[in-house]
Amino acid sequence: MFTHPNLTVLNHPLVQHKLTLLRQKETSVADFRRIAREISLLMCFEVTRDLPLELVTIETPLEQMQSPMLEGKKLCLVSILRAGNGILEGMLDAVPSARVGHIGLYRDPKTLEPVEYYMKVPEDISERLVIVVDPMLATGHSAAAAVTRLKAAGATQFSFVCLISAPEGLTVFTKAHPDVPVFTCAVDRQLDDHGYIRPGLGDAGDRLFGTK
Ligand code: URA
Is the CB of 205 under 6 A from ligand 1? Predict the structure, then answer.
């Protein structure tokens, strides 16, 4: 079993139940999309557990009080295209005011290295906790490249969120970015020769968008 001080596996019963539904091959595109959104909403609570709060003065209908609110600039969610968008939605359900960035990477067929084809992030990304989302941490190369690119853009504070991870991907990612906490719902057995996580759930993008 892969362990790392920066790895959190969310073993909440609701999360695990929903992940089982997601893995099943009979699950329809509509249900897959809905359940991925529900799980990521639940994951968001764990990922944001340590956000700093400050007391502000408010008026209830009855009296004035000091009450906690999130301090400073809020989050920036960054979706790794395209499957990241499937868990972005649930995160936004929990934190509707979060800023959103997108990063697109493809694997060069010759060098097998990730190549960036799209990136758009908020200008003040350096002032925000950046939560990078991608449902499957498989080889770990895209996730590691995305965080490297976001660090170059000025981001300093990160978490990485995925539904399912492979031990191989966790090794690559945590070696490249030992400073980045990783949140996942499961660490599966292994990657297969085609880069799929086993047992996994298949191709997350195809299952989210019905492209196969
Ligand atoms: N990407 C996916 O969508 N599924 C995998 O199993 C691996 C990478």
Answer: yes
Q: Please state the rounded mean pLDDT for residues 121-148.
A: 96
Out of 33, 82, 149, 203, the active site residue is 203
Is 43 within 8 Å of 186 (Cβ atoms)?
Answer: no
Which position among 179, 192, 206, 211 bears the catalytic label? 206
CA 96 to the chain's CA centroid: 16
**pLDDT band (50, 70, 90) for residue 206:** very high
Residue 130 host element (H or E):
strand 129-133
* Mean pLDDT of the 77-106 span: 96
Dist. CA 14 → ligand 1 center (Å): 23
Q: What is the pLDDT of residue 145?
A: 96
The kind and range of the H/E element at 168 are: helix 167-176
Residue nearest to ligand 1 atom 7, measured at CA:
196
Q: Is 7-209 in CATH node 3.40.50.720?
A: no
Q: Is the CB of 169 under 6 A from ligand 1?
A: no
pLDDT exceeds cutoff 90 at 43? yes
On the CB side of 72, CA atoms within 13 Å amount to: 11
pLDDT higher than threshold 80 for residue 35: yes
Instruction: Tell me the β-bridge partners of 132.
Output: 78, 160
CA–CA dist 158, 179 (Å, integer): 8
